[in-house]
Structure formats: C-alpha cells, structure tokens
Amino acid sequence: MDIIKLRELLERELASAELEPLDEEFYKEFDSLIKALEFKAESSRERGEGVEERLSLAELKIAKELITEIVRVRLHKIVDLAVKGVPHSLPEDERKIFSILVSFIGREPLNVPLEERPIERKVEVEIEESKSPIRRAYLLEMDIPKVMDGNLNSYGPFKKGDLVVLPNDIAAILLKRGAAREIKISM
Which of 4, 139, 157, 172 keeps 20 to 30 A from 18, CA to CA? Predict the structure, then answer.
C-alpha cells in the first residue's frame, strides 16, 4: 500500500454510491504504511537529511488525511447499509462497526452473530411502526430535553407549560411518565 493506492481508493469511494471492496488486511496495511513513514522520517532526521525527513513527514500527513477521508466516506455508507439492514462484505474492523450499528438500530443484543440476525425484516417493520402521525396536543408538566423518535427525527427541547404536538410514540412515553397531559382542542 502507498499514497497513490489510497488516493485511488478515495476517488473510487467518492465516485460510487456503493462501498468499494477492501482487502481484509486493509487497515493493518495502512497501519504498517504509517509506521514505515514514521520510521523513514525518524531515520532521515537521525542521519541529518533534513529534506528527506520533511518529504517523509509530508507523505505521512497526506496518508493520514487520505485515510481520514476514506473512513469518513465509508462510515456514511456503512450507516446507510445498517439503516437499510443490508449486510455487506466488509473487513473485520468495519464489520464490527456495522454490527454495532445494526444492534443499535434493531435493539438486538451485540452477542448474537451478525449472520444469524434477521436484519432486513426487523428494521423495516420497526421503521414502519414508528412512523406515527402527529394527531394530538400535549401540555408539558416539566422541562423535556431534546428527544428522538424511531426515525431519528428530533423534537424539543421543551419547557414546562409548553403546548406541543408530538408523534403518538413519544407522547405515550411522556404521558406514562407524567411529564405531559393531553389537551382536547375543539374548533
């Protein structure tokens, strides 16, 4: 692996909506590249080769910036796959992230192997069930911090005494906890 391969991978990731396939050892190879560049810069410094040291440090900086951008783009795609519940062939490091995201979204225990989880069906059903229409008004009995519904839409923060219209799933929780009471509005 070298900087040119990293740049090419970044270009492919940016050009495609799909995850580019990576070798299982990709992140280990990247770590090796970083260690090699650090070693090269250090040995150049020890030999008194200032220009060579600066070149190695510049290569190191570029490599770190490239991997940061690659990881950022890939993480966005992995989150999208996890929300959709679509398993994908990923290197081990990314498979762990995918598994955590799927567990978070599906509220499944992390100790269940990813391959055994009914990902697609469960996520679709939960998302459909959490799309509750906004129907009623509620008077808040206490301050409420920002809250999120099942679709990751945020509501609030609210102050005690605010009159709010909320989705049924959030309202049910607030009613159960005594944090709100339903208001009848007639026209």
Answer: 4
Question: What tokens does 50 get?
Answer: 């200032």
Q: Which amino acid is residue 102, in one-letter code? A: V
Q: Which of 65, 71, 97 is nearest to 19 (CA)?
A: 71
Burial string for 126-149 (b: 16+ CB within 10 Å, else e) reads: ebeebebeeebebebeeebeeeeb
CB 101 within 8 A of CB 77: no
Q: Which amino acid is at 13?
A: E
Closest CA to 162 of 187, 144, 136, 186: 144
pTM: 0.51
CA pair distance 49, 55, nearest whole angstrom = 10
pLDDT tens for 22-77 read 888 888 888 898 899 899 999 988 999 889 889 988 988 998 998 889 888 888 88
Contact present, 85 and 119 (Cβ < 8 Å) = yes
End-to-end CA distance of the chain: 69
